[in-house]
């Protein structure tokens, strides 16, 4: 029987280790893994991208994840309150910065989730698969604002409903159903795609690295994608960490969460590239990869199989997105509940409405409002991509400051004491050496350099420098 505990009884908490791990893995596994990871890998050299991505996870993301959970559990409160409580002074602003980043991520994330939800309905119950030109269909679809408005609204409503139910009964319960469902659908789809003609060419593109394909861009994209995918740098795991019991082993939980997330990203690539190559299509299609190319693959499966496989795929994306949107919403919700002592339900519905409104420019940014589609910003022509790029920057910068916080303010000794709770063999272990060295040196140094380069790249482009 897992031990039942509730940390800070008035705030609620996860019912145990499995509940926390599933919820945190649910936060991590999302559109980032199934939508963004394959298209970034497709445009950035396939296996080379995968290789750099894995290095980022091991070297930078895993220690940062341990750091965030430890801060949250030690302080037992929201992201702002945690930095404020452990650091004092102006450190609370670092938490606020993360809360704002979460707010903006959710605003555009919900729009893409709405697209996926619409595709699920259109493929399963509509006539999407009978369209001749799926590229054109997608272009028109993302500008068909009426239905998309409703799909995004429904998605935000579902997110708000789950979060309003609280930690154990809402967030944890939803993840316990959706996460296993997600793995089952994913494995089924991989088995199917590997049996298609020319599937092995896709596997080769994805698994055999060509070192010439690795450029500075590959590194930036892999880095920002790794932070986004593991939900790091903005306080989501500080917030979830605050609901974790003192008897839990943070390091091993973080390892399981990182492996779960990375395996879903990896497996998504293994599902997507065989499908893309079986069509003879080009993998570097960008954001429309799954909406256009994969849908074409579903179309080729015939009307019944196409509906079943395609419908399952977009249902998988909806599950993954929902487990992430609930964690994104929990970050500002916890802040208002903990700091402003406001009641959870109205807070959750109120912020959801606000975030939805902030998401409208992203919803309108795919062509229907021309100026939102042609921003004068390097590399992010539309508003949705622009917000997404700004959020990528804030995650890298946020994670970098978190390392400085632990190293210079909270201090490594206190950090270690927190990690030793629920993990008696931590002191003197090689994992302690690795985490301490990473948080004190590797992460602050590399993240400082990379944060600056990522900012310069997103605003001005670094092509001419390298
Ligand atoms: N990790 C999520 C994904 O890969 O889709 C996105 C995300 C969720 C980012 C929660 C940040 C966060 F706090």
Describe this structure in words.
- The chain has 466 residues and is mainly alpha-helical.
- It has helices spanning 17-28, 31-43, 47-75, 79-87, 92-125, 134-141, 145-164, 167-194, 199-207, 216-229, 236-241, 250-278, 289-300, 303-339, 344-363, 370-373, 383-410, 412-420, 430-460.
- It is globular and about 60 Å long.
- Residues 1-9 have low confidence and may be disordered.
- The protein binds 4-fluoro-L-phenylalanine.
Radius of gyration, in angstroms, nearest whole number = 21 Å
* Helix content, binned percent: over 70%
User: Mean pLDDT, rounded to whole units?
Assistant: 93
Principal-axes geometry comes out as: globular
Q: How far from one another are the termini? A: 57 Å
Strand-residue proportion: under 5%
Count helical runs.
Answer: 19
Bound molecules: 4-fluoro-L-phenylalanine
The count of DSSP E runs of length 2 or more, i.e. the number of strands, is 0
Short description:
The protein is an all-alpha fold and 466 residues long.
Task: Explain the layout of strands and helices.
Elements: H1 17-28, H2 31-43, H3 47-75, H4 79-87, H5 92-125, H6 134-141, H7 145-164, H8 167-194, H9 199-207, H10 216-229, H11 236-241, H12 250-278, H13 289-300, H14 303-339, H15 344-363, H16 370-373, H17 383-410, H18 412-420, H19 430-460
Helix pairs in contact: 1-8, 1-12, 1-14, 2-10, 2-12, 3-4, 3-10, 3-12, 3-17, 3-19, 4-5, 5-7, 5-14, 5-15, 5-17, 6-13, 7-8, 7-14, 7-15, 8-12, 8-14, 9-12, 10-17, 12-13, 13-14, 14-15, 17-18, 17-19
This protein binds 4-fluoro-L-phenylalanine.
């Amino acid at each position: 029987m897992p031990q039942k505990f509730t940390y800070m009884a008035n705030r609620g908490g996860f019912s145990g280790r499995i509940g926390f791990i599933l919820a945190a893995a649910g936060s991590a596994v999302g559109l980032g893994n199934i939508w963004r990871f394959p298209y970034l890998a497709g445009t950035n050299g396939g296996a080379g991208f995968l290789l750099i991505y894995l290095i980022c996870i091991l070297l930078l993301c895993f220690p940062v994840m341990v750091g965030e959970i430890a801060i949250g559990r030690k302080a037992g409160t929201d992201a702002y309150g945690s930095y404020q409580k452990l650091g004092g002074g102006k450190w609370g602003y670092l938490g606020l910065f993360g809360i704002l980043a979460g707010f903006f991520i959710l605003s555009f994330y919900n729009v893409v989730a709405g697209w996926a939800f619409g595709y699920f309905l259109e493929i399963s119950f509509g006539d999407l698969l009978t369209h001749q030109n799926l590229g054109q269909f997608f272009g028109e679809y993302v500008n068909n604002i009426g239905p998309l408005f409703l799909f995004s609204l429904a998605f935000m409503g579902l997110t708000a409903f789950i979060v309003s139910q609280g930690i154990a009964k809402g967030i944890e319960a939803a993840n316990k159903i959706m996460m296993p469902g997600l793995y089952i659908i994913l494995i089924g789809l991989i088995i199917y795609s590997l049996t298609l003609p020319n599937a092995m060419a896709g596997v080769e593109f994805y698994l055999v690295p060509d070192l010439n394909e690795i450029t500075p861009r590959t590194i930036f994209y892999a880095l920002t994608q790794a932070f986004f995918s593991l939900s790091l740098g903005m306080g989501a795991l500080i917030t979830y960490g605050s609901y974790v019991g003192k008897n839990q082993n943070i390091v091993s939980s973080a390892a399981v969460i990182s492996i779960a997330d990375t395996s879903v990203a990896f497996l998504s690539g293994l599902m997507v590239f065989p499908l893309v190559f079986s069509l003879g299509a080009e993998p570097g299609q960008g954001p429309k990869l799954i909406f256009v190319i994969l849908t074409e693959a579903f179309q080729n499966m015939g009307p019944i199989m196409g509906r079943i496989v395609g419908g399952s795929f977009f249902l998988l994306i909806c599950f993954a997105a929902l487990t992430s949107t609930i964690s994104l919403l929990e970050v500002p919700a916890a802040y208002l509940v903990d700091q402003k002592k406001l009641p959870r339900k109205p807070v959750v519905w109120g912020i959801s409405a606000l975030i939805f409104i902030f998401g409208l420019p992203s919803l309108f940014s795919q062509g229907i409002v021309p100026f939102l589609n042609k921003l004068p910003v390097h590399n992010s022509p539309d508003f949705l991509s622009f917000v997404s790029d700004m959020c990528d920057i804030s995650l890298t910068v946020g994670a970098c400051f978190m390392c400085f916080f632990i190293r210079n303010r909270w201090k490594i000794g206190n950090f270690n004491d927190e990690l030793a709770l629920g993990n008696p063999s931590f002191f003197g272990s090689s994992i302690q050496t690795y985490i301490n060295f990473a948080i004190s040196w590797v992460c602050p140094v590399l993240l400082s350099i990379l944060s600056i380069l990522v900012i310069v790249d997103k605003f001005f482009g670094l092509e001419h420098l390298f």
